[in-house]
Amino acid sequence: GGGGGGAARAGVVPTYQRVVESGVAAAVGRSGREAAHLDALEKELRQSARCLAHVSRQAMAELLAGPLFDADVKRPYGPVLVWIERLFRSGNGSGSESGGASGAASGSWSSSAAEVGRVALLNLLSSNLELFPTCLDRCYDKDAAVAGGFFQVVCEVYSEQPRVSVEPHVLLSLVLYRVVDPVAEVRDDALHLRKVLHARLWGPESRHLVHAPPAAPRAGSPRERRSGGANGPGAPLSPGGRARAGTVDGALSSAPPQLPLP
């Protein structure tokens, strides 16, 4: 629904965590086991809850493969992108997905959640390239985990999808911003994106190169001015025999001579 993104920010995950804690406590209370075995039971139940949550996230990530038909899902802060952001944040321990006090293995589950977020975003963006500008904006997020996760997927999709339409200077600005990132993996991704951008837009086989057509001859001027006639190749001379002011040849002829370096 339209309030999905706001609900995600308002505490859906803490509510889920409270439900898990409540269920574990109720199951332990009904177990009838001796106190010596209650700790083992509690750990087992928490582990099962984490496994179930992880498998559920994986299933949702795979469901994002394919075109979207719901406009609400495509919103920059819609429920899907907010959910993916939350998965990325769990990788640096700042998100609620990390499990809180649910066990010492929460770090490994956080890393798994961040990887699920990467797969989810890759499936989403590969099938819905119109979201590329939105994901580009997320590469500048103030949260380093979110920005890094989106940037990794943006690099991967742009490298594999020639149909991505984006202004070259936008990607070049992102490369320059990310190439000095303190994380080595992010710098490597930035360098790779620069190579792909150069090969696609300015390489020898690029179809995006724009070749300017030759200028039309001015009225009354001989064509040898452009074809290299009596006055030399491409040298439009004034009646006095000197290059006209305002032309490239005039600028070069008036430039001071370059002195040899010491």
Automatic annotation (TrEMBL):
A biological process from GO: cell morphogenesis
Pfam family of the protein (one): MOR2-PAG1_mid
Domain Cell morphogenesis central region: 12-204
GO cellular component: cell cortex; site of polarized growth
Chain positions covered by the region annotation Disordered: 210-262
Protein name: Cell morphogenesis central region domain-containing protein
